[in-house]
Amino acid sequence: MSALATRILDLPGGRGLLLFERNLLSYKEMWTIILSGFFEPLFYLLALGYGLGGYVGDVSVDGVTLDYAVFIAPGLLAASAMNGAFYDATNVFWKMRYQKLYDSILSTPLSPKDVAAGETAWAVFRGLIYAVGFFIVILALGLVESWWAVLALPATVFLAFAFAGAGIAAVTFMRSWQDFDILNLAILPMFLFSATFFPLSTYPGWLEAAIRATPLYHGVELLRALTTGAVGPAQLVNVGYLAVLGLAGTWIASRRVEKLLLT
What we know:
The chain has 263 residues and is mainly alpha-helical. Helices cover 73% and strands 3% of the residues. It has 13 helices and 2 strands. It has a two-stranded antiparallel ribbon with strand order 1-2. Helix 4 packs antiparallel against helix 5 (68-89), helix 5 (68-89) crosses helix 12 and helix 8 (112-140) packs antiparallel against helix 13. The longest helix is centred in the middle third of the chain and has 29 residues, at 112-140.
């Protein structure tokens, strides 16, 4: 092992890279599971962007007129990153409650902080894989209108990080599989209403305020700005919001893993 690798592993949470490697090897034979998650946003894009889009026509956002397919493409890109990260993060429930994976892992030099960091890194990576596949599609379809889009994939990392951290933290409070219904109750409305398919201005004021508080909205706004070229100071707020949420979720997850497994 190189001196640099040793230093990285010695950082707080650095040994989580070993758990990341473990997940990478375990999914090597199950790549179809990851591939299947790519198709849902693609179907939405084809059905709504080109089907419904023929009736909707152009959409005006902050004085800029966009083709409907161009409008929803970054929203679905954000949803791809969200789905990959969040639904992989929820696998922590299975690993903790039934597989008892972390019981054996914590008998090694890895700490709860390493577990949280490793699972978060893997969930972010899976979200990025989904985002890369979908971004290639919208690029090939001509739905990207600005060179700012070169920053779109790095931006999806922040979005995936936010949902990975929040997702892992959330599942540590779950008591049974039925609690997944609560998570879905949060994710589905967020997917439908976070300016993914309609401009924020179409909603009533009270709902608009609620939407602005959701992480997916910030991800959608960030990616839409980058793919259309309407970049401004607001995108720094989007990035900051997502980064803080991811850090907070990872911190809560590490504390909860420690409480559940070491006490």
